[in-house]
Design brief:
The chain is an alpha/beta fold. It is 53% helix and 8% strand. The protein contains 13 helices and 5 strands. It has a 5-stranded mixed beta sheet with strand order 3-2-1-4-5, with helices on both faces. A hairpin with a 5-residue loop joins strand 2 and strand 3. The radius of gyration is 24 Å and the shape is elongated.
Length: 361
Amino acid sequence: MHTLRLLRAAHNESVWLRRQKRYNYRQTMESVEDMPELLFVEHFRLNKSTFRRLCNDLRVHTSLRGSKEIPLKIKVLTALNFLATGSYQRIVGVSQNLTQRTTSRCVRQVVDALNHPTLMSKWIQFPQTLQERSLIKEEFQRKYNLPGVIGCIDCTHIAIVKPSEEEHAFYNRKGYHSLNVQMVCDHNLKIMNINAKFGGATHDSHIWSSSLVEPYMRHLHESGEHVWLLGDSGYPQRPWLMTPILIAPHGSREELYTTRHVQARTCIERCFGLLKTRWRCLLRDRVLHYHPNVASKITLACCVLHNISLHAHLPAPSDIPVTTVDDNDDSSTQTTQSTTTENRNELIRGRAMLNYLISRL
């Protein structure tokens, strides 16, 4: 009996020493100002001033709080390191001297905080005013010589582990499980809208018809404002959504339009490339080991951080590819449209608006 008490006391002392060591290490981590700026950006993808502002926003606008053992800064650093590297939580935890369980808790708390409606509405917002849309139109006109464009739209696959429920809805035609995430970006690669609710088996056109952007763009058109998004041929031609002309006569205005359309739509491809290179947990070879709902939240959190990085004018990671071939190439197949009278009428109106746009080139 006495021996058991001694063993229990020794075990408790060992646990206490490990906890004390971790606590002391975390205290030293609070002085992140001592880390060189370039090394800090390499590990956490944000510079120090942007990191401090992010911590303050999370403290003020969300319920995220630190504790004596784990300060808020350490929680945010842990989450940023996980999102930036896509490494397993155990490896990330070792770098911050945290257990895997504590690392998981920190990542989820910070991800939930980044999904707070206040932060989402602050950093991801579709242009609501005529002035905002006019500024974007002018930039697309200046860069790509296409009038009326206020954004580019496409979907990208975010790999996840095989879910235990409704597995078929997440198995994409590439042969792996994923979320099919729709995004809209502007000329500066800023994400203006994101829909991460659907599995990889869902077609782009279905996600578009279920999104909040579609009725908003329809409303702008019906209000007499000639603005549109650019999408690939996986999307339906509409008066507010312009798609390329797949077979255009050589030397024609249609070919000129399609050339400029393709050039302008590289914005969304470059946006995907920058997003996934900066926040590498979204890369195809990383695979998010989470329930689809949690993977969706992680994707949204990365998009918020993407826009924060753009706002801070942070340079792109040095290993970003010059050209990015996205995981989703649904542009090679035409979307299947229902033959309702409403869809036929919208298609006719869409082609009429497309002809109007071509005549302005």
